[in-house]
Amino acid sequence: MSRQHPLTKHDRVLQKTPYGFDVSIWEMFWPLADGATLVMARPDGHRDPEYLLNLIEQEQISVIHFVPSMLREFLGANNVSRRCRSLRAIFCSGEALYKELAEQCHQVISVPLYNLYGPTEAAVHATSWRFEPENKLSGSVPIGTPVDNTQAYILNTNMQLTPVGELWLGGIGLADGYWQRRGLTAASFRPDTVSDHTGERLYKTGDLVRYRPDGIIEYVGRVDSQVKLRGQRIEPGEIEACLALHPEVDGAACAVVEPVSHDQRLVAWYSGPKALEQRMLGNWFRQQMPASWTPNLFVHVDHLPVTENGKLDRAALPTPDFTQENKSNDFVAPTTDTELLLSTIWSNILGVERIGVHDNFFDMGGHSLLGVRLIHKVEEALGEELPVTALHSISTVANMAQLIEQQCDEDTADVASERLSHSKEYRLMLAAASSSTLPVTGPGSLLLKLHDNGSRAPLFWCFNSPRREMPKLARLLGSDQPIYGMFSGGRILEPQTEANTRWVIDRYVDELLQLDIDQPIIIDGNCRGASIACGIALTLVDLGHPVDKLCLLEHFDPRLFDYAGKLMLLFGRESHLQAHKKFNWGSIGWRERFRGVPDVAMIPGRHGFFFTDANVHALAEKICSFLDS
Known about the structure:
With about 625 residues, the protein is of the alpha/beta class. About 30% of the residues lie in helices and about 20% in strands. It is built from 17 helices and 24 strands. A seven-stranded mixed sheet has the order 18-20-19-21-22-23-24, with helices on both faces. Strands 3-4-5-6-7 form a five-stranded mixed sheet. Helix 3 packs across helix 5 (about 100-110), helix 9 runs antiparallel to helix 10 and helix 9 (about 335-350) packs across helix 11 (about 395-410). The N and C termini lie far apart (about 70 Å).
């Protein structure tokens, strides 16, 4: 490895693999042997893409290793290409590396990508191959050619060389055998009868491979039924034998299924007198076998299919219905806003239609990599940082919602002010305004003057993302429209606890009253910003200051029925929130409930994408017509 992939004293290698896996040895001793710098990640840091990105950027990591399934999660994080400029090489091993993932990696991080292969019995890595975008590949990336001091032979059942067959390894990297397993050692480590290396041994990998015309080795699959799932070896036969021990199971079969390309799930089929509750069967299985071996889905069949010879016919096993994945009979619907949002996120991540507050993430088909994705989606939606390692202790919607709400209750108004005034988002908001624009009411003001010329009534827009929302919309509303920007607090003050929300509303009301505007004002907002805008408008009205018009994007508050000004509610046609359906806008008499003159309109796009180039013009057109009405 050192000759084929030399390190220098300037290299910084990240050690992030848990010590129970052989790659950790490679990560630790390779840089130490070559005089490079070893940087050690925190325990379980390998599961957290955001932590890894920060570590790569801060420590200027130049060499890193990934299991392909974790590489896929890593590439999906924010600003990967910008934050990984120090990287000069990426290594992959542990499971098949597919062409699509390798191409994605090259597009996002344009550095050499090496696919390594090697079982633990052959000292971590035995073969290596560098991916090049111009390579013509059809499926998985080749595993390459042997590294120094390693021999690789493709043999048939008669231990003869063949272009397609089982891979056998030799060389100084072979282990002595299995600890106190003489029989298994004798079956797997055999005398080398292929080469002229007298007295040497070969290791039987169990992997089916073949030579390409250029002599490069490609991985095809397993000779036996062993599979690798997220970098871990799994024996379906042992899972089948374990399930068969259950008193209400007659027989079982197990296999890896891909409901989505390269997203593998472990599925078990079982026969018996009745279908068993998914959660109970999963809990029973985890008491017998490692948690990582627990099937994502248990499928009940009346009889396991067999061939004419009476053997299990795996090809005839019914296609699993993942929409029914681990559904529970004791469904409890979400009741709070936090639980409702979390259940929606869980549903999207797991691909399960209905998620109850007491459903367990792992019982519903979740696994460690999906857990990483879940944590980051929750952080994006709520702004709350949750440790990936805590997922096992907060593995239900109810527990996660409780933890988030507890964290939010600890934020006092003073803490909220400190977090918001010194936040990166607030500084970006200042930068997004024109160079001549300063906070309206003095230093520390959250109210910005974006455009103060024009004869129209001033418009105050409560923004969530200053860089995405402010520049385009302010320009499209025209030069005759005075417009002020208000920062909703975004992820800094999420989720919307009463204390944090009230603090932001009161802060803006105080600043608006300081402006001493002598005409009715117009307030707009989007999502979280719409919630803040609604509170500001209703508070100003209660204080006797007229708010002529209120426009809310993707939000509705029942208190608006008492709002007497002109109201417009905008919803995205493709929005996943579908909030407008909750209030049955088409029913007779709903308009009469308002004191004012409400209007509801649909605009192109879905939640979070209204300010893209494709949608923002239609949004601006609706707002302009509302302002002119």
